[in-house]
Inverse folding.
């Protein structure tokens, strides 16, 4: 995925697909505790640098996020997230050196044409990587927040499910939720993994 120009990275009220990889493809999550810590950091940063989180997938050596900025740039948000997690990781494992590969990578998401497409790609990453047979069975992804409408803890508000569904322009949010589930289910077909969406191919993402 190519890096964005600085002015696009600092744009507010914009939606981004974020990818951050371990340096030299090293694991950045070694245990369940690490995954939980990262989600805790997401919540912490979200409270101090408000943003909307629509989807996420935490894989052993990298993670994906779909974020909409509000009053803080994606650069500010991601710097804080990666800094806090790297500090935790280095302290816990007595590690040194760069945890992440370069700066995070990002691409602007067109809300009108492939907003859901990006979310589906992220939600199916665990399946594509062979970590789960079904996305709802993967503990470290956002799909369960949509699959199980009772899963979302309103007091924590990690994933902004309702706002994500509102962008569908379907007034009945329950109907929108079911439409998204079907959309993701359609992406489980083998042809989806063989021929990735144009926005993925054009970004040279893997």
């Amino acid at each position: 995925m190519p890096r964005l120009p600085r002015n696009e990275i600092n744009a507010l009220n914009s939606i981004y697909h974020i990818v951050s990889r371990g340096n030299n493809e090293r694991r950045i999550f070694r245990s369940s505790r690490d995954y939980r810590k990262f989600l805790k950091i997401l919540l912490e940063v979200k409270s101090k640098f408000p943003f909307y989180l629509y989807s996420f997938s935490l894989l052993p050596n990298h993670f994906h996020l779909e974020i909409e900025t509000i009053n803080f740039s994606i650069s500010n948000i991601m710097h804080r997230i990666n800094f806090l997690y790297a500090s935790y990781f280095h302290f816990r494992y007595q590690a040194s050196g760069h945890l992440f590969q370069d700066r995070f990578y990002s691409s602007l998401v067109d809300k009108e044409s492939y907003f859901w497409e990006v979310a589906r790609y992220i939600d199916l990453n665990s399946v594509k990587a062979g970590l789960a047979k079904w996305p709802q069975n993967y503990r470290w992804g956002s799909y369960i927040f949509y699959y199980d409408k009772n899963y979302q803890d309103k007091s924590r508000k990690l994933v902004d499910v309702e706002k994500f569904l509102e962008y569908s322009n379907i007034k009945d949010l329950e109907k929108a939720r079911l439409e998204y589930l079907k959309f993701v289910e359609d992406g489980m077909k083998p042809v989806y993994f063989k021929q990735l969406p144009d926005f993925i191919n054009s970004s040279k993402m893997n």
